[in-house]
Amino acid sequence: MLVCCATWQVIGNTYRQGIEEILASAKRMKSQQKMTRDDYTWCDPKCPDNRNPSRLAMYNKYIYEARRDPARFASKVKNKLANYRKL
Questions:
Q1: What's the CA dihedral at 54, 58, 63, 66 to 10 degrees?
Q2: 28 near 11, Cβ under 8 Å?
Q3: pLDDT value at residue 24
Q4: Phi (first) and psi of residue 35, to 5 degrees
Q5: Under 8 Å CB-to-CB from 60, ≥6 apart: which residues?
Q6: What pLDDT score was predicted for residue 1?
Q7: 3-state DSSP assignment of residue 43
Q8: pLDDT for position 57
């Protein structure tokens, strides 16, 4: 489960947790606090609700994805590079 559609931060798994547990989680609360402080480093800079877009957000996303699933991240990078070569 994601906090919103423009973030990559996973806050819970509905197969293992109930919605109430996920919504009461520290990770969800941290995300909400960040946005309340206009800290959108967990959000896509292209999100229309992101009042303070930052390129640092994309860097954070790539680091998060690489740590979460290194093989999948490497595959995505390989595919992107292959697409650039076709141009």
A1: 170
A2: yes
A3: 92
A4: -65, -35
A5: 41, 42
A6: 52
A7: strand
A8: 81
Residues of the chain short of pLDDT 70, as ranges, are 1-4, 87
Environment class of 41 (CB within 10 Å of its CB; exposed 0-12, middle 13-18, buried 19+): middle
Residue 32 CA to residue 63 CA, distance in Å, equals 21
Greatest Cα-to-Cα distance within the chain, rounded to the nearest angstrom: 48
Residue located via tokens 């402080």: 37
Pair of tokens at residue 10: 């996973």
Q: Is the pTM of this model over 0.90?
A: no
- Tokens 């390989």: give the residue: 78
Tokens of 44: 């896509």
Q: What is the pLDDT of residue 86?
A: 75
CA distance 31 to 3: 8
